[in-house]
Specification:
With about 230 residues, this protein is an alpha/beta fold. Helix content is about 30%, strand content about 30%. The chain starts with 17 loop residues before the first helix and ends with a strand.
Length: about 230
């Protein structure tokens, strides 16, 4: 993976994802047991299935186990590429969606001119992936997504509504650090990064795991703005 100091736009930011990846390695396939109901992800994937042409190329950022998102998109006949920091999650995704392509990568590695070039995509999904970044990095990640998309490409993302930045929480027997926004601020950040928000859904979610608190989930359906 690339050296954080070499990433254009990151300045003095020194990303350290080691703890995040280790937590998801430890969780493994228990993730799907702890989060059995994923109506928001299913609905957003169906939006893409109904909006994209056959054979469209879709990137799943923070693909996790590959279920349900990569699995549904592959079933729809799309060319699916997934990335995740956790090698355990990547292995699970490859087993669950063998016809898709998965890589162990950081989103920062996909920036224009970065160490990995996966090409362009007709759509990108990022379900709770940006949640795992400090706020200072989220606009950079959104800029990377915008540049990965073809003109008028689609972007589906989700976040937990919370006014926190790089905040440590217990998570299925491990600890992760999360960031979030209140709803209107999230919309402003996404709009400012070059996306038109064409739809929004809210879900009150109570995970099955006792150490994960109930949460309000925000799902945004977006389209890349035309170049000025």
């Amino acid at each position: 993976m690339s050296s954080p100091s070499s990433r254009p736009g990151y300045g003095d930011i020194q990303p350290d994802r080691g703890g995040q990846a280790a937590a998801f390695d430890a969780i493994g396939d228990r993730y799907d047991e702890a989060f059995p109901h994923k109506e928001g992800q299913v609905a957003a994937a169906e939006w893409l299935v109904g909006s994209l042409p056959p054979g469209a190329r879709v990137l799943d950022l923070g693909c996790g186990t590959g279920r349900p998102t990569a699995r549904r998109l592959a079933d729809a006949g799309f060319e699916v590429v997934g990335v995740d920091l956790s090698p355990v999650m990547v292995d699970l995704a490859r087993a669950n969606v063998p016809e898709a392509e998965f890589h162990r990568l950081d989103i920062a590695d996909l920036r224009p001119g970065g160490p990995r070039d996966l090409g362009t995509f007709d759509a990108v999904v990022a379900f709770f992936a940006l949640l795992m970044l400090p706020r200072a990095e989220i606009p950079l990640a959104l800029e990377t997504v915008r540049r990965l998309l073809a003109p008028q490409g689609l972007f589906a993302l989700s976040m937990v509504e919370a006014d926190v930045d790089d905040f440590a929480i217990p998570f299925i027997g491990s600890t992760v650090r999360v960031s979030g926004y209140l709803r209107e601020e999230l919309r402003e950040v996404v709009d400012g990064a070059g996306f038109d928000i064409v739809g929004e859904s809210l879900y009150s979610y109570a995970p099955a795991s006792a150490d994960v608190q109930p949460e309000e989930q925000i799902f945004l359906r977006c389209r890349r703005k035309p170049e000025r």
